[in-house]
Amino acid sequence: MRSLFSGIFTNFLAQHHQQLRARSVGKAVKSFTGKAKSTAQEEIAEVQDFKEELLEDQKKFIIQKEVEQERLKQQYEQQFKTVEQQIENQNLDVTRHELIQKTKQRHDQKAKQDASKEKQSNFDDLSNVRYYDEAQLTRRIRQSKNGESLFKLYNAHKFTYTTKNLVHTLTKYTQLVQQNKSNRLPKLDRRFMSLLMSLQSNTNMLQNLEKSMILWSLCKLNMQEEIVEKLIKESVDNIKQLTFKQISILIWVMAKFSYKQTNQLNSVCLEVGLRLDDPSVKICTQNEIKKPTSQKKEEELDFEDLEQALELPEEKENIIEPQSLSMFLWSLGKLGVYDEDLMKSALNVISNQIDQFSPLMITQILYSFSNIKYKNKEVFEGFCEMLQKKADQLKEENVLTLKTLIVCLCRLKVGEQEFILDLAKMIINKTNFKKNPMSPRFMSEILYSLSKRYIYDEKIYNQMASNTIQVASSMNIKDCSESLYAFAKYLNKNKSLQQAIQIICTRISQLEGKLNKQYKQQIQESLKIGSIQNKEINKILKQ
Predict the structure, then answer these.
(1) Which residues pair with 320 in a beta bridge?
(2) What's the pLDDT tens digit per position in 457-507?
(3) Across residues 76-104, what is the average pLDDT?
């Protein structure tokens, strides 16, 4: 670096000497020509000034070079630090990468070991299954205690499963899902979807009973897949070959999925009507159907024991099980199908053998007729008499059945008031209001039905008022309208209902946007009946 600076400085001095020499020569020439007027002293002074300027420039140059050297030194130091930091970071990255690689290798190794163990376990468990026949496989399917063991068996033999094995796997899985013994939802389980695809590709090999089992299972799982529509169409086309039980399953599935195809419903109703008109037809319970052990939470009746019914032998000719007929009629009511000739035929068969029907079945039948507003008071009164004879069985029914029965009897305007009141008392006694209060819909349906039949009991209404306070925040506009009507009707008899009425009015004001003409009229009628003054509600009703 010093040699570089000395060379530059030497060149700089040489250039200045040349300039000085050139100036001197120029002045000499001028003096010889007579144009120069300066003296020798002036020339010396000028040379001296030039030397001073040269020294000053030399000092400035040296200072600049020192500053430049310091700047370069700092730059080199900064670059050195940067390089050191990069090397350190690179070492850290290398270390981190190595750790990640080692961890990944360890996990991969463990996964391989687990897979090997599972494979060996599957081999140990199923080493002899390949020699099982259809009946033995069916037995193994039914013995499965959870979804994993069921699908382990399926995965090992899905290419040798018969359609019967596939159907039994589906029904068993449905049962396990209902018992909460399956860890996955059906639509999220690829093994289940594989099973469904296998069934869908083999529908032409299915028997009528197997089609019914598939429809029931998918309906219970609430899976309205493509195969459902396909099987419904095939079953309707083959309606004459179906047993009455299979027809009831078919129409039940259609009702559950709101499958309202007029032509198909007409075909089903026509076939059932012809069978019911046969003089030789009999209502007979061939097999005992077990009662459900747990109370349903959804607020509708269901074909609870259908899975067990499907496992039972085929019906004999001209024999109809009461459960099949009651469920068939329930499904028609759910779909809103009104066929007067069919209803007359069904009522004739039922009324002649009413003792064969349980309280639940009679409730399903009454639900159907009340839903389509079919009137035959004489026959329905006969149903009520039979229900009263089966009072002991009624006490064993769950609250949903009792509530539905109250609603149906009040809609049809049949049954003695005392009998209906007893049903309401059964519900009150079976309900733990502290732990599980009645839902707003459940409560309002009971209250509205009782009030329409002018049935009043202070204890029941007080309990319902207390329940209203608990569930008011969950009430919709229909619940509010019906409950308000019931409480307002008997406010003069029971002033303690006032608090529940005020809470309902507050809830109605919160649901102002949900009010339509029908609810406004009903609320206005309720306020008038109970002489209730509520400025906020009156303001809303006038809008």
Answers:
(1) 283
(2) 999 999 999 999 999 999 999 999 999 999 999 999 999 999 999 999 999
(3) 68
Give the contacts of 50 (CB within 8 A, at least 6 positions apart).
Answer: 16, 20
Q: Compute CA distances 142 → 65, 70, 136, 169, 246, whole Å.
A: 97, 90, 10, 8, 22
Assess if residue 334 is contained within a domain: no
Query: Which of 491, 497, 443, 502 minimizes the C-alpha distance to 467?
Result: 443
Describe the chain by its helix, strand, coil percentages, rounded to 5: 75, 0, 25
DSSP-derived letter for residue 415 is S
Length of the chain as a residue count:
543
Q: Which of the 8 DSSP states describes residue 207?
A: -
Angle at 98 between CA 95 and CA 99, to 5 degrees: 90
Give the count of beta carbons closer than 10 Å to the beta carbon of residue 175. Answer: 18
Give pLDDT, residue 308: 47
Does residue 485 contact residue 526 with C-beta atoms inside 8 Å?
yes
CA dist 201 and 528 (Å) reads: 64
Distance CA(532)–CA(485), nearest Å, equals 11
What's the domain count of the chain? Answer: 1
Q: Identify which of 291, 301, 367, 357 has the alpha carbon closest to the alpha carbon of residue 325.
A: 357
Helix 322-335 and helix 340-352, axial crossing angle in degrees, nearest 10: 150
Q: What is the arithmetic mean of pLDDT over 8-27?
A: 59
Report yes or no on 135 lying in a domain. no
Tell whether 59 is covered by a domain.
yes
The model's confidence at residue 270, banded by pLDDT at 50, 70 and 90, is very high
Contact (Cβ atoms closer than 8 angstroms) between residue 136 and residue 106: no
Quote the domain boundaries for residue 56. Answer: 2-125
151, 170 contact by CB (below 8 A): no
Query: Could you tell me how far CA 478 lies from the centroid of its own chain?
Result: 25
Determine the Cα–Cα distance for residues 341 and 318; give it in Å rounded to an integer. Answer: 20
- For the purposes of burial, counting CB atoms within 10 Å of the CB of 168, is it exposed (0-12), middle (13-18) or buried (19 or more)? buried
pLDDT band at 191 (very low <50, low <70, confident <90, very high): confident
**Residue 531 vs residue 16, higher pLDDT:** 531
Task: Name residues whose C-beta falls within 8 Å of residue 155's C-beta, 6 or more positions apart in sequence.
Answer: 191
User: What is the rounded distance in angstroms from the CA atom of residue 88 to the CA atom of residue 81?
Assistant: 11
Quick one: what percent of the chain has pLDDT higher than 70? 75
Average pLDDT in the chain? 80
Indicate whether 96 pLDDT > 70: no
88 belongs to a structural domain: yes
